[in-house]
Amino acid sequence: METKPSIVKLHKFFALEAERGYDNRAVVGGLTRVLDSWEGEARAEGVPEPLIQVIRARLQDYGRLKPQSRAEMLRGLWQRIQRSLQLPEEMTLETPANGRPAPQKPPAAGKEKPAARPPVSQREKPKPSAPAARPSVQQPISLKELRAPVTAVPNIGPRRAKTLERLGIRTLQDLLYHFPRRYDDYSTVKPIRQLRYGDEVTVLGTVESVQVRQYHTKHKLVDVLVSDGSGKIRARWFNQTWIADRLRKGMAIALAGKVDQFLGRLVLVNPEWEPVDKEQLSTGRIVPVYPLTAKITQRWMRRVMKEAVDTWAPRVPDPLPAALREESGLLPLPSALQKVHFPENWDDVTKARNRLAFDEVFYLQLGLLQQRHRRKSQKARRFEVSDDWLEERLRRLPFTLTGAQRRALEEIRRDLASGAPLNRLLQGDVGSGKTVVAALGMAIVLAGGAQGALMAPTAILAEQHFRNLQRFLADEEGVVAPEQIRLLVGNTPASERREILEGLRSGTVKVLVGTHALIEDPVQFADLQFVVIDEQHRFGVRQRAALRAKGDNPHMLVMTATPIPRTLALTIYGDLDISVMDEMPPGRKPVETYLLMPRERERAYTLIRREVERGHQAFVIYPLVEESEALENTPAAVKAHRILQEEVFPDFKVGLLHGKMKADEKDEVMRRFRDGEYHILVSTAVVEVGVDVPNATVMLIEGANRFGLAQLHQFRGRVGRGGQRAYCLLIPETENAVEENERLKALTETNDGFVLAEKDLQQRGPGEFFGTRQSGYGFGAMRLQMANMLNVHLIEKARALSQRVVEADPELRLPEHRLLAERLEQFWSNGQGEMS
User: For residues 743 and 709, is the Cβ–Cβ distance under 8 A?
Assistant: First the structure.
């Protein structure tokens, strides 16, 4: 008598479980997951109901048993099934010496059937060659060995390795840290009769028919009918005819995907599929979905990743000392790497990602705190002034400092007198008065006879700082004479440049303001002791370090007009002391902000016309330089400039500024706008960091939904600088994008840059705050893939632990910190040595 297919299928599950050592992973989620679909099939085939109930009762508790008890229970259950159904003696669960279940008895004589290919678990598998053999789990691997080429993994040859390079995967470590971008949850196994439209499920069944059909002219469809005893469903694959060669009638398979509908019948379109006698990587579980490139499929990537994770992840050393790990409730690193790729459940995903995110923030913090410790332990020249001296300088200012400015100045003054190098971030909104605070800090150093330098990202911004420093430092009884403050930019005439360089070397030039020209080799200072870097995120790490190297361990103040939420500031500026200026000068009116729909654009033009006729100026910002086919509805500056000049404002002068222009062209346009030659300036985002145009009162932003809140707030800060009533008008691309337009409404409700930055962080992620990488949020050899900058608890925990480690062992020389030091160096290996 031929064995019933449902019993053959059950035997396959039991045999695979025996082969795996009874780990309850032959089916992801445990053997009990197969019961619903299996019962219907067994009943349809006439398996006695009492036996079905016994099988159900035994398997219900399988997951709670220990492996030895599972083995005994499964063997006992199988013997009962054998006796009840009079199965062949050869159909056993006893495993022979090779570790595989004994082969099944062929069909009884008289049943003429074509020879079927044996199940995968029973085929003779080719023995791997010696180099591809899996190493012992007990054998540890060093961090250095993890840098071995990815070709060490079976099935990755030179050609595949070349393809993987496009994903940034070159080493074993790269592969292990190539995390899934998301997961598909196919862990729910349902009988076909219970399927509903829209379900994301796994179905276990038997192939009843396989057909290849032509549709349209050149395309083919693979149509497979699958049954599980409770019902039937069709699975369809488009233009994947190779699948028809792999599936055969009578084959037991698992299908996973979203249940769709065609002509009133349920279907699975392009589902994942696997034979049920193989370990399930794409069905019956939470399935990882990886970032891919051309010529690599998810199935191949999962198979390769499984090989790599099973072989190497258990042997990866955990640099985090066990005491710290346990105190923080974190998974061991090997376990986290295994679970992040092939989780059993969503709790695995959460715990694994938490550990890996912690590592990223922890190594970042550790490196920054080490730098901070080294700087604090260095010596720097002390600069001290009396209270009377400082008050006299403050009396000479044409305005009174705000409380926030006074606090920041006192912090700078205290640092300059400490004997350790000042290393501080001065962060404040556009118009909060950072420049005067920086100038007063520089005045303290100049009073001590030393030199100062200020570096800005553009020539026109450098020119603005030059004029401000002359105003604050070189008045009638200033700390320096006007001719002792000089400006050095790219187009400075050669004769003037020679004069400046000579004055710097001799010490007669006390303050140098400029762009990147400051860090060129000919620039040599006699005694540089105070460095100011404006809009510091516009400069790379090397550029900041090069300016610092012009002096003998000078004091350094970096400024940014980008309000940064506390969580992000803690993370990325861990090596700096931070002064926050969260108060605007008195008399500065808030910019009135309005959200207009595209159909209301004429209202914006009317307001611009009115303001220009009153003698004021206006900005009009666009997200693109030129029109793009991919973004056909997104407004672009070049075309808009022509329309505005020729059709909308023919009687006004309209300038154009964008990022594709040369630096000197951009500076010239901004100068002409500042000097009133242009009434209206059409620009892209390059105007975000720009000069003061006190006469500008209107900021119109087209395609406002394309910008972040913090960036929009920066644009808004460009107008109303002269104390007049000012307006910011936001026009999104469409009025139908409800969620985007709700986001923009936040700008109409607050002028607080820090509130907006917090919202921006929540909605758009951390973005780009560094000068070392133009894409990706990262440091050194690793990008921050897992760390969520909104997770305050994780960030503060990582910071607290890294502080304890640095306080106890600043250079990580203790034996328990050896691996930590090695991993930290690897993490920062491409970081150019410092972050600020």
Answer: yes
